[in-house]
Amino acid sequence: MEDLLNIREDLLNIREDFPLIDSGSAVGSGLTDGGSFAVGGSTPAPTPASASTPIPSRSLVYFDNAATTQKPKVALDTIIDYYTHINANVHRGVHHLSILATEAYEEARATVQKFLNAKESAEIIFTRGTTEAINLVAQCYGNTHIKKGDRVIVTVGEHHSNFVAWQQLCLRVGAEFVVIPIDRQGVLDMLRLETELKKGARMLAVAHIYNVSGTLNPLRKIVDIAHRYGVIVLVDGAQGAAHTFVDVQQLDCDFYTFSGHKVYAAMGIGVLYGKRLLLEDMPPYQFGGEMISEVSVERTTFNELPYKFEAGTPSVADALTLSASLRYILHIGLDRITAHEHALYTRAYAALQAIDGIEIYSLPSVIPTAPASTHTHATAAPAPATPILSTATHTTHALTAPTLSPPTPTSNPAPTSNPAS
Nearest-CA neighbor of 365 among 16, 22, 65, 156? Predict the structure, then answer.
């Protein structure tokens, strides 16, 4: 009963903080009313067929946080405040607005450093999201350190971003692509992982929390084993950053990535954390803007960390929303968030067990389920009168996976998790 009261109190607070959930609908915005929203005041914007039925204008139940989170008012206000009162480029101007923008942008970086407990803010690279951060490492570290005959290890539970980037690198350079299986409950085969690490590898890429099964991997143990055999570790933290404490120094991972839009910030902003020595050794992969130090006809020198990986004009407003959202999480407290999730999980698990035809695939803090012989879109699209929004997942994890050695352009690896989650 106490847990139920706490859940109800939390829900009231959540609805006050998140405008879309409180209002319950995008109806009236012009985005879902059959095309009345006009671009430039002339031609009606096209409306997707799936959005043609308005959501009832009452409070939503939103189950799609694995894909993206709703935005608290503090994040939305930050965007408006930036474009209303600052709206200047960073690091390039000496006028007042540019100075304000630069200070705010670097304060946002410092907030991320604190959130991850990185040693220094120079180890925090702003990206467009987890996908870009992983691809940055695959390109900049992979292309210079992973050669023909080397080995790259991933797990079959990875999001496609942390699977395909390494698969394609291996195909390109002729490295061996090793995939570690998980069991039916989404648990990583640790014995197989250590066996493969003993054989040697250049890189281990692993999720902090699997995006489909919700399994929390024993990350510190995994990193310790990998480092014992001299293997660099990249962690996909897209699902981890919002649901568990992240201390990159304690974890001792070499790279950690996450997306802003999954921690209540705007879309289009993300983070790559990397140990300084590794980042300094990596060449940039995009050119122009603040990543330049000096340019001549004969040569170009690049800026110091973190700027050498942040080419072009950055998404300043989105970085500020990330800072605001992380401070929002810290204000609430991850311990309180974890307790709330556990209470919801306990009630949901008990209720689902009582329903015939529901199979529960794993036992983490989220509950991936599927009715027998039902298409995923059917479970994700309830009756129009019911404002419950959830993710449609095309497939669960494969339970076994091959080792591809060496890969060829026609390789057909085991399917992994939903690329949209």
Answer: 65
